[in-house]
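Hey, can you fold this one?
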Amino acid sequence: STDNFSLEDRRGKNGYHTQIGNGCFAIKFFIMHNQKNSQLPTSSHPSTGRFLLTTAAFMLVVAGMRAAEPILVPLIVSIFLAIISASPVFWLRQKGIPTPLAVFGVVLGVLSVGVVFILIIGTSLDDFSEAIPRYQARLTQEIEPMIHWIQELGFQLDKGILLKSIDPGASMKLVAKMLSGLGNVLTNSFLIFLTVIFILFEASSFQQKVRTAFGDPKGTFSQAQKITDAVNNYLAIKTVVSLGTGVIVALWVWALGIDFPLIWGLLAFLLNFIPNLGSIIAAVPPMLLGYIQFGIGHLLLVAAGYVAVNLIFGNVVEPKLMGRKLNLSTLVVFLSLVFWGWVWGPVGMLLSVPMTMVVKIALESSPSTRWISILLDSEASAAQSVNNTSQEPQPDASSSKSKHTGSVSLHT
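Sure. Predicted structure:
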């Protein structure tokens, strides 16, 4: 029995070793097979997977932005207000005013404008919202004769379905919704106020702290400073031009006797940040209101005033102040309005084009991304001028270095 046990034990051990050998052979064969396959030309599956992964990450980020709207929207508004306020703060510092006084002075000015803005919305928007049904009924009465005239020409139109499909007061409802949404954001004025103050205090020393901590061997921070200066310049000039546009529009509408001139001036100010489409959207509600109140003559007068103001400010004043005309493609403007309006609502629509323009200015500053900026531009000639400007020969590094060395030697 002992011999039988030892024989069976040896057979079991031999079988066990045989299984181990077969397993090692299978692993070796698998490794050699993978090595052969790794030498074959790669297929397009990795690029497809990378594309799907990027798309999934983008959708996840967008979903997160929609979910974090109550936090992100006041933060974005604070950043834009801080960028606009940075230029006056730096100007006051150059005049010898201490940074705390400069920051608090500019922020108090911005806060005063915000309070006036809230008062305009609060006092006018309620009356305007109550008047919308009355204006809509009046406009429907004005459209009905036109529908009867079309029916007399032989076209079969159902008046009820047509008026339901084409809402005459939709533009006015959109204005009320947009302004009320912006007013809801400004209810977080205390949070926005504190964020703007902290950003302005950090802006004066942040760049120096980063340079001290990491250095600037490749000129990265110098390039970032150029982008920041260009963005500050654009937003400051655009704000001044938009403010002038809003004031003149409000005065023009008031002179014509149209209701709620402050709302139309405020709307012209806000939508002037949106090139091409913004002026059209801002002009439609007061044109309809002029038609309701006085007839076709006032509609044409309102339209003429808007066209004149936008031609003067958009084609003369703004390019002269900026040095060149900065425009976006109409398709890019429309898509950015739709996307950011879907993500962040009315405030996203108002901030969509300034954010896109900031990205465009940043893309112009780098040769590797300038082609994207050219595709975003509205005119090929303007894009070509940007490209030519970027390709101007730079001063010779050796000569500049020798000049620098000479100046150092002279100083020594």
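The chain has two domains: 70-214, 223-389. Let me know if you want another pass with a different chain boundary.
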